[in-house]
Amino acid sequence: MAASKVEIWHRPSCSKSRGALEILREAGIEPVVVDYVANPPTKARLHQAIADAGLSVREAIRSKEAEYAARGLADPALSDDALLEAMVAAPILINRPFVFTPKGVRLCRPPETVLELL
Questions:
Q1: Counting Cβ atoms within 10 Å, is residue 13 exposed (0-12), middle (13-18) or buried (19+)?
Q2: Which of 40, 35, 24 is nearest to 114 (CA)?
Q3: Catalytic one among 2, 4, 12, 14?
Q4: Cross-strand bridge partners of residue 10
Q5: Is the pTM value of this prediction over 0.85?
Q6: Where does residue 82 rank: exposed (0-12), middle (13-18), buried (19+ CB within 10 A)?
Q7: How many angstroms from the chain centroid is the CA of residue 46?
Q8: What DSSP string describes 21-50?
Q9: Is 14 noted as a catalytic residue in this protein?
Q10: Which of 35, 41, 55, 104 could cysteine-pair with 45, CB 3.0–4.6 Å?
């Protein structure tokens, strides 16, 4: 598998993200590593990644982040669009790691989920 066909939205401080990256590298894959906090995806790309991973927007948001409470995102009346806007504005709210391969997209929590994509 060509490394250019594998991408990970990575956060070095996250053990799950580090674990998924390690599994990829152990499999001989050097993915494109995207620091999604420094370089957040567009709203359209984020929405597509969430859909391709088979998740709801709420499943893809980090509800334990202080930013989640600060922005009042627990409100069930908020639309997916409003949640996506918040995630793009504060990318720390995007759950991680998302891994993209020719076989699909997954939120790799636990990190071993990445094996489904190899």
A1: exposed
A2: 24
A3: 14
A4: 35
A5: yes
A6: middle
A7: 8
A8: HHHHHHTT--PEEEETTTSPPPHHHHHHHH
A9: yes
A10: 41
Q: Tally the C-alpha atoms within 13 A of residue 100's C-alpha that lie toward its C-beta.
A: 16
The pLDDT value recorded for residue 91 is 97
Say whether 74 sits in a helix, a strand or coil.
coil
Please name which of 46, 48, 52 lies closest in space to residue 94, comparing C-alpha atoms: 46
Looking at every residue in the chain, the average pLDDT score rounds to 95
- Looking at domain 3-117, what is its CATH homologous superfamily? Glutaredoxin (3.40.30.10)
Question: If pLDDT is split at 50, 70 and 90, which confidence band does 99 have?
Answer: very high
The two beta strands, 104-107 and 7-10, are unpaired
Q: What is the pLDDT of residues 11-50, one digit of tens each?
A: 999 999 999 999 999 999 999 999 999 999 999 999 999 9
- Torsion region of 90: left, alpha or beta (phi above 0 gives left; psi -120 to 50 gives alpha): beta
Tokens coding 16: 């799950």
How many angstroms separate the CA atoms of 53 and 117, rounded? 11
Report the Cα–Cα distance between both ends of the chain, in Å, rounded. Answer: 9
